[in-house]
Give the backbone structure.
Amino acid sequence: MADKVLMKGNEAMAEAAIMAGCRHYLGYPITPQTEIAAYMSKRMPKVGGTFLQAESEISAINMVIGVASAGKRAMTSSSSPGISLKGEGLSYLAGCDLPAFVVNVQRGGPGLGGIQPSQADYFQATRGTSHGDYHMIVLAPNSVQEMVNLTFQGFDMADKYRMTVMLLADGTMGQMMEPVSLDMGEVKSYDKPWAVTGTNCEREHNIVNSLFLKPELLEKKNFERFEKYNYIEENEALYEEYLMDDAEVCIVAYGISARIAKNAIDAARAKGIKVGMFRPITLWPFPKKEIRAIADKVNSFISVELSMGQLIEDVKLYTECTKPVYLCNRTGGMIMTPEEVLQKIEEAVGGNK
Amino acid sequence: MTTTNMLIAGFGGQGILFTGKFLAYEGLLEGREVSWLPSYGPEMRGGTANCSVILSDIPVGSPIVSNPDTLLVMNLPSLDKYEDATVAGGKIFVDSALIGRKVNRTDVEAYYIPATKLASDEGLTGLANMILLGFVIKHTNVIPFENIERALQKVVPASKQHLIESNRKALELGYNYAE
């Protein structure tokens, strides 16, 4: 307890990135994640790193491709519209099998949308964000402490699997302050024999590339990549359960929605309603097996999300539509109250849709 | 088990967010569960500002205070907006130098202090927020008054240590104010 500090989610995650060995931050400001860039601009020079405000989001993500190609840990951060701009680069990172860490502190959309918290980029994040067959590992923190822990862990996963890890937060996670421990432990380092670091005329050139004009070869590359994805789906899914032992109704929620849902669950429990929560921490890989097992025990699910019904599609998919799934949502930067969630729980118990 | 769900609201520039931070730091020093969530965006630049602060003995669920048990208001729009949201039996603290009307609700406790006027009378311009907070500490059990010094040491940045003295004076002024 003594070593906890009070920090904003955006600043705490930026510090965690530095602790994870990231020395290259390439970004472009946008609310509600600008504190990340501001923090990095102060800290990076002090730890011998690079802070660079690019001329655009597209430029920043391509600089990440450059740093990652050289085998160094790099990150960029943005909010929803800015992530869309980075989409092309994210696909190239996947095509090149490069490790990278990308933060999306979501705001309301579509278009320029608003600046208030949102979870409307769920499809965008879990379906790869851009063109081609690929995935990113998507981590969804629900506290400042998880902003930190998942950032530290995310850099490790990126190197381990040579792929992009996205921290999918939202305006509240970025802006709120909570006590947080920055005690992260050792950084694990990975050999990167593929990195373009100069040959010294002693080895063949390394080439980092996503262009494969022979379809046979491109298909083979994609098959290999999906073997890796299958392994990750089997081994890296993270989740948390809350009061699920005797639950008859299961709320599924991530990030800020899970925090609000927790209040509603406590209120419902006080009324004797058996409700619990399944909180995916990795949105990709989604904890499929675990939620499928829950479907055999509960009567119904409620997807609580700040979007027009995106998470709910995965709930239906991975529970194989075996139980009714209700939706409790707000959007556009509006946030549901615990009372709204409680009302939905009572409707679900009553069997009303 | 005690939990304080506080909402602090006023104009940008009144130190609304700082007031919340002060409490959050003291909560941290007490080893309690704490969350602090500001409004952000264009309203911070001269418009309305508010922040949610929760101090609790159990882990904080939602960090958003939509129904405060303790409401601090430093302008009329904030009182208009949040008066009805306050829980029955809650406490509303009003800077009566800036807000001409009384609290309409009869199922809450209303407290009035002309914090902004006191601040300018006492040469503490800009510290009406801390005067109001001292008054709040007097009439609630949110934090013990004797802990204000360590919280100030924590929340005031090293480069601005000269401000501790005036902040302490402001807190004391509010704490000792007799309605």
Summary: The radius of gyration of chain B is 15 Å. The first strand of chain B starts at residue 3 and ends at 11.
